Amino acid sequence: LLKQKADNPKEPLSTCQTYTKKKHPLKVGNGQEVPAINGKGNVVKAKSTNKMDNGSAKDNPPLAKPKSKKVAMDKNLSGTKSDGKGCKEKKKNGNILKENGDIKHKRRKAEERAEQQPKEAEIWFDDVDPKDIEAAIGPEAAKIARRNLGLETGQSNQSVEQVLVKEKASEGLTRAVAMDCEMVGVGPKGEDSIVARVSIVNQFGKCIYDKYVKPTEEVTDYRTAVSGIRPENINTGEDFKTVQKEVADILNGRILVGHALRNDLKVLFLDHPQKKIRDTQRYKPFRQRVKNARPSLKLLCERLLNVQVQTSEHCSV
C-alpha cells in the first residue's frame, strides 16, 4: 500500500484506509501473526497460533502421538489395552484367583465334613437310649440325641451312691420310701415273672431293706444279664411269705415311690392306696420333659439326675 501511494501520490487514500481499518491480523508463511495497524495508527497485538497458514484446525487435525514401546509391549502380552500397569494388575488378578481357589477348596472340605456328620434333623427318635444310638450310628448321633432330650453331656465322676445318697442322713424309716424288685422268669420260655429280690430305701436314699427271695416255682430264665440274679442268690433266699409280710409292714401308711410300681406290687401280691403312690413312669411332667409316654428309669435318671444306672446288670437298690 505504501508502494502504491508512492507510485500514485495523487490517488486518494480511501483504498489505503479501507485496508488499514481492518483489525484482523495478517498471517505469514511461518504460521505466526504479525501486528496490524488500525486506522488511527495504533498497533494491535496479535495472538500466536499453531494453525497452519493453508487451512483451519478442522482441515488439519493434529497428528496422532505414537504409542510408547511399553504400552505396545503390554498390549502384546495381555492381548488387551493397557496403560502401563498391565503387569501389576495381571499379578494382582493372579493372587485374587488363587485366593478364590483356596476359599472354594476350604468350603468344599467343610461341606464334605458336614456330609459325613449326622444332621440333627435326621436324629428324630427320642424314645431310644442314646447309648444304643451310639452303638448303632456313632458318638455324634448319640450326642445329638442327648441334646434333643436335654441330657447333660458331661457325666459325674462320682458313683451313684455318692450322688444320690446323703451320707449323714437318717438310716431309719421315713414318711416316704422307694421300692424296686428284680424278677426271674418261670413257665414256658420264662415269660411269666416271680420276685427274686426286693429292695427299699428311705427318702434320703439309705437302704432299709434288701433281701433275695426263694423261688416259689421252677425258674426257667434267670434273666441274669438284666436282673443280675443267679441260682445261688435265690436258692438260699428268704421265704416269699416272710418277705411279703415284712414289705407290707414297711409300706403301711407311707408314700411309695418307684418306677412302674404296678409290676412290683403284682409279683409281691400286694396292694397300696393309689393316692400314696408316686410312680415316676406315670408322672406327667417327667413324660413331657423326655417326650415319651412311657420313659425308662434309665432315661429319667440320666435326664433328671445326670447319673448312669442299669449300664450292665440291674441292681434294685
Automatic annotation (TrEMBL):
It comes from the Eukaryota. Keywords: Exonuclease, Hydrolase, Nuclease, Nucleus. GO terms for cellular component: nucleolus. Residues 1-118 are annotated as: Disordered. It holds the Pfam family RNase_T. The keyword Transmembrane does not apply. Residues 1-10, 99-118 have a biased composition (Basic and acidic residues). The keyword Glycosyltransferase does not apply. It is found in: Nucleus. One of its GO terms (biological process) is rRNA processing. GO terms for molecular function: 3'-5' exonuclease activity; nucleic acid binding. Residues 175-317 form the Exonuclease domain. InterPro entries: REX4_DEDDh_dom, REXO1/3/4-like, Ribonucl_H, RNaseH-like_sf, RNaseH_sf. Belongs to the REXO4 family. This is RNA exonuclease 4. It comes from Aptenodytes patagonicus.
